[in-house]
Design a protein that fits this description.
Radius of gyration: 30 Å
Helix content: 25-40%
CATH class of the largest domain: Alpha Beta
Oligomer: single chain
CATH topology of the largest domain: D-amino Acid Aminotransferase, Chain A, domain 1
C-alpha cells in the first residue's frame, strides 16, 4: 500500500485538515471582520496553502464549507448587508517566476491570440465597491465574503479621495472597485495618538484603515487620513465600451478617480517578472504599503475566454513579495544603556528570517511602548523588518499566550551599574544619569572615536570595551593619555597595531571643532547642529561662555539643543574632561566665518553610495562648508543627487520621479568649485 494511503496517515491528514479549517476561520474573522489580526499575512497564507495542498492531493477530504472555496471573510452585524451585483473575487497568488510561468501556461489552454498584461503595485488596504447612479455615489460596500458585503456608505462619504459626484455626462450606472488605504505617515501619527490616549495601537496600516472605515460613527472615520485607489470597473450601464482594461483605467482617471500612477502595460511574462522585482526592491519608496504586484490580462475578450474558478479569476494573479512580518518566541526582554545613558528595552527572540535577514533581537523603543503592546517573555510575537529599518516587535499573538504569563516591568535600576534609572518629566525615555556607568562609558568613547566624530581608526567598540575592562579607559580624555605599553600587553595587540593606533590618536587632535562637538555625545546635538555652532562661534571657549539665548539664535540649533549644550558643559565632570582634552592638544578651533566661497548657499545636495575620493561625511562637510545643505533624503527641494558606487535604489528612484539631476564624483568637484549643477549635453 502506498505510504500516502496508509490508514494512519490518511487519518492524520483528515485531522490536520479539520484543524487548518478551524484556524483559518478564526484568523479570517480576526482579519476581515474584527480588524484585529493576530498573525502576519504570510503565516495566514501558509495555513491556506497547506490546506489547499491536502485537498488537492486528497479530494475526498474537501468539504463544501472549506475556506479554500470561499472569498475573504464574513460581515459584521454593525452594518447592513449588501449583495454585490457581481461577486468580488479573491486572487490566486504566486511568489516566483516559475509559478508565474506556470500560470501563463495554464492560460494558453483557454485563450487565443497574443496576451498583454497590466501590472500595478498591490496596495495593502481594504477592498471597496463604489456604486454610482447618474453620477452620484449612492452606495459603498466592503468585499465581505465576495457575495455579500457591508454597507459603509456613510463612512466612505467622509473620505476625501473618493469622488462623491462625477462630471457630466456620467454613465447611468457605474461600479468602481478599489482599495481604501492609510499612508505610513498617517498610520504612525494615528498610533501615536492612540498611545497618548492610553489605547492599543493598530498592528499595521491595513488594519488601521479597516478599523477606521468600519466605525459606527462616521466622524471617527473623518478624523483619520484615508486614501483611495481605483483598480477596476466592476459594472457599467449607459457608458462607453472598452476592449482593454488599461483604457478603462484611463477613463476612470478622466472621471476624477485616483488610479495608481505606476500601472504599466507589458508584453511578456519576462517583463512582468522584471516589473515585480523592481517593485520588490523599491516598495518602501512609496508612502503607502504594498505587499506585491497584481498582474492582469489586459484584453477584456480574453478575460471572458479565461473565466474563473469558484473563488478567483483565471485572468489575474497576485505576485506576493517576501514577508516583512513573522511570528517567533519572545525569549526575554532586556535593557541596553546607550552613550547618552538612555535605557532602551529590546526583545531577545528565537531567531527567525524576516525580510531576508535572520533576526534574533528587535527594539521595543521605550517603557510606554512595552506597556501599550503588552508583550511578555514567553509570548509568541509578531516581528517586523522593513528594508534597512531596525527590526521591531509589533505585538503579541494573544491566542498563543500561555496561561499565567506575568507582565514585564521596566527595571528601576540600571542593569549595568546598578544606579537608579530616571524618567524625565514629560518624556517617554528613561536614563541612567551616572556618568561613570560602564554601559554608557563604552558607547560614549566608541562614538567619540567613530568616523563621524574624531575618526580614530583601530579604536572601535570592541577595542574600547577591551581597554575599559583593563582599566585603561574611563572617559574620552583618557584616549590621549592611553598607556600604550599596557595596550601592547593585551591579547591581539602587537607592535605594529599599537603604533597604528598611536598614529590615529595623534592625527585626531587636529579634527575640526564640529567633529569634537559631535564626539562629546551631547544629547540632541547632531552633525548639523555641531557644524552650525562651530561656524557661528569659531572656538569652544566662546561656546563655553555663550548663553542659551545666543546659541539658540544660531540657525539649525534652536532652544532645545542650546539648553542641552549649556546643561552638558555646566557639569563639573564634563568641564574636567574638556580641560583634559585641551591639555592633550585637541583642536578647539573652528571657522569663525565662511573661509570658503558660499557657492552652494540655498542649494540642497544629497549624497548616496560610495565615493572614491571622499567619505560620505567628508563630501557632506564639503557641501555644508560652502553654504549648502546635505540632507539624508531626496525631496522636491533637492538640487542634485550625488551618486557613487552602490547608491541607494530608493534615492535614485525618487530623483528620477522628481526630475532631480544625478551627478557623479567629477560633477561633485565641479559643483563645489562653481556652485552650478552640471548639465548633461
Amino acid at each position: 500500500m502506498p505510504a500516502a494511503e496508509r490508514p494512519g496517515e490518511a487519518k492524520g491528514l483528515r485531522a490536520r485538515a479539520v484543524q487548518l479549517r478551524e484556524l483559518i476561520r478564526y484568523h479570517s474573522e480576526r482579519y476581515f471582520v474584527l480588524d484585529a489580526p493576530e498573525i502576519p499575512d504570510a503565516e495566514f497564507d501558509a495555513l491556506v496553502a497547506e490546506l489547499q495542498a491536502i485537498e488537492t492531493g486528497h479530494p475526498e477530504l474537501v468539504t463544501e464549507d472549506s475556506p479554500t472555496r470561499q472569498v475573504g471573510g464574513g460581515t459584521s452585524a454593525t452594518f447592513a448587508e449588501v449583495r454585490h451585483r457581481t461577486p468580488m473575487m479573491s486572487l490566486d497568488k504566486t511568489t516566483s517566476y516559475d509559478e508565474l510561468l506556470a500560470w501563463g501556461r495554464r492560460m494558453q489552454r483557454y485563450v487565443t491570440g497574443e496576451v498583454r498584461f497590466t501590472c500595478e503595485p498591490k496596495v495593502d488596504g481594504l477592498a471597496m465597491s463604489l456604486l454610482y447612479e447618474r453620477g452620484r455615489l449612492v452606495r459603498a460596500a466592503t468585499r465581505g465574503d465576495g457575495t455579500v458585503g457591508e454597507d459603509v456608505t456613510a463612512n466612505v462619504l467622509t473620505v476625501g479621495a473618493v469622488p462623491k459626484a462625477l462630471a457630466s455626462p456620467a454613465p447611468e450606472v457605474l461600479e468602481v472597485r478599489g482599495e481604501i488605504y492609510m499612508t505610513v505617515p498617517a498610520f504612525e501619527a494615528l498610533n501615536s495618538r492612540q498611545l497618548r490616549a492610553g489605547a492599543r495601537g493598530f498592528v499595521n496600516p491595513r488594519n488601521a484603515a479597516a478599523g477606521s472605515l468600519r466605525q459606527k460613527d462616521p466622524t471617527v472615520t473623518a478624523s483619520r487620513e484615508l486614501g483611495f485607489c481605483a483598480y477596476q470597473v466592476g459594472g457599467l450601464e449607459g457608458g462607453p465600451s472598452f476592449e482593454r482594461h488599461s483604457r478603462s483605467l484611463d477613463w476612470l482617471r478622466e472621471l476624477g478617480f485616483p488610479v495608481d500612477p505606476n500601472v504599466e502595460l507589458l508584453g511578456s511574462l519576462e517583463e512582468v517578472d522584471a516589473y515585480c522585482k523592481r517593485w520588490e526592491a523599491d516598495r518602501h519608496r512609496l508612502d503607502y504599503e504594498i505587499d506585491g504586484v497584481v498582474v492582469k490580462v489586459d484584453d477584456l475578450a480574453q478575460r471572458r475566454e479565461l473565466g474563473a474558478t469558484s473563488r478567483a479569476p483565471r485572468w489575474a494573479i497576485a505576485y506576493k513579495f517576501p514577508p516583512e512580518e513573522r511570528t517567533t518566541l519572545l525569549r526575554d526582554i532586556m535593557v541596553s544603556i546607550g552613550r547618552t545613558g538612555k535605557a532602551t528595552p529590546f526583545a531577545v527572540l528565537e531567531p527567525v528570517v524576516v525580510g531576508g535577514a535572520t533576526v534574533s533581537m528587535a527594539t521595543l523603543h521605550n517603557e510606554d511602548q512595552v506597556v501599550a503592546k503588552d508583550v511578555r517573555p514567553g509570548d509568541t510575537v509578531v516581528v517586523r523588518r522593513a528594508g534597512d529599518v531596525i527590526p521591531e516587535v509589533r505585538g503579541p499573538v494573544l491566542s498563543r499566550r500561555p496561561d499565567g504569563l506575568a507582565r514585564w516591568g521596566f527595571p528601576t535600576n540600571c542593569p549595568v551599574c546598578g544606579q537608579r534609572l530616571v524618567r524625565l518629566e514629560g518624556e517617554s525615555d528613561t536614563f541612567c544619569v551616572n556618568l561613570d556607568c560602564p554601559g554608557q562609558r563604552v558607547q560614549r568613547i566608541a562614538h567619540f572615536a567613530s568616523r563621524g566624530a574624531m575618526d580614530i581608526e583601530h579604536l572601535g567598540e570592541r577595542s574600547v570595551a577591551q581597554f575599559a575592562r583593563a582599566g585603561l579607559l574611563r572617559d574620552v580624555a583618557d584616549i590621549y593619555e592611553l598607556d600604550l605599553e599596557a595596550v601592547g600587553a593585551l591579547e591581539g595587540w602587537g607592535e605594529t597595531s599599537v603604533a597604528n593606533l598611536a598614529a590615529a590618536i595623534d592625527a585626531s587632535r587636529a579634527r575640526p571643532l564640529a567633529n569634537l562637538l559631535v564626539g562629546l555625545s551631547i544629547r540632541h546635538l547632531g552633525t548639523t547642529g555641531s557644524q552650525s555652532l562651530a561656524a557661528a562661534f569659531g572656538h569652544l571657549d566662546r561656546i563655553l561662555s555663550a548663553s542659551v539665548e545666543e546659541m539658540a539664535a544660531v540657525e539649525g540649533v534652536g532652544p532645545v539643543i542650546a539648553a542641552s549644550v549649556e546643561g552638558f558643559l555646566a557639569l563639573g565632570r564634563n568641564r574636567e574632561v574638556v580641560e583634559r582634552l585641551r591639555a592633550a592638544g585637541v583642536n578647539f578651533e573652528g571657522r569663525s566665518g565662511p573661509e570658503l566661497p558660499q557657492v552652494l548657499a540655498g542649494k540642497s545636495i544629497v549624497v548616496t553610495g560610495t565615493l572614491e575620493g571622499w567619505s560620505r561625511e567628508e563630501a557632506e562637510a564639503a557641501i555644508t562648508s560652502r553654504g549648502g545643505k546635505a540632507p539624508g533624503s531626496v525631496s522636491k527641494r533637492t538640487s542634485a543627487l550625488v551618486a557613487g558606487s552602490d547608491p541607494g535604489a530608493a534615492k535614485l528612484a525618487k530623483a528620477a520621479e522628481l526630475g532631480v539631476p544625478v551627478l557623479d564624483e567629477a560633477d561633485l568637484a565641479s559643483l563645489l568649485e562653481t556652485g552650478e549643477v552640471p548639465t548633461r549635453g
